[in-house]
Amino acid sequence: MNKNDILRTLRYALNINDSTMIGIFKLTDHEIEQSTLTDLLKKEDEEGFVLCRDDVLGYFLDGLILQKRGRKEVKPGETRESDSRLTNNTILKKLRIALELKEDDMLAILKLGDVYLSKSELTALFRKEGNKNYKECGDQFLRKFLKGLSLRYRT
Fold first, then answer.
1. Residue range 22-35, pLDDT digits in tens
2. Is this model's pTM higher than 0.85 or not?
3. Other Cβ atoms closer than 10 A to 8
């Protein structure tokens, strides 16, 4: 799924304006200009469209977590793992953390997007890659989750 589509859908679903988005990026020490943000939010066929890279969407999702939940204190000797690549599973996990969604909340949002899962099927999406019960989150699944998210937060 196109990262620009994800960014646009989240902006709409959570009713975030430009200045708030810029502030969310700043929380991760990533400065973004208004013009760059505007170009990222354009559709592919619009003039000035700029492709959203994984790291840019990652900054936004991490900033969203910081905005909604605050900074997590790092204990002495503890290091933070950085996500080397941004998969659909990682995006789903970051949204679950930022919005403080429990299993029942996730299932309700998915139901709004016309996806019906059991709790065990849902937890498979949040397992580490390589785990025997890991399930990859496909583009269609993420798209339907974002649709459900829009319906939940915009109505």
1. 999 999 999 999 99
2. yes
3. 17
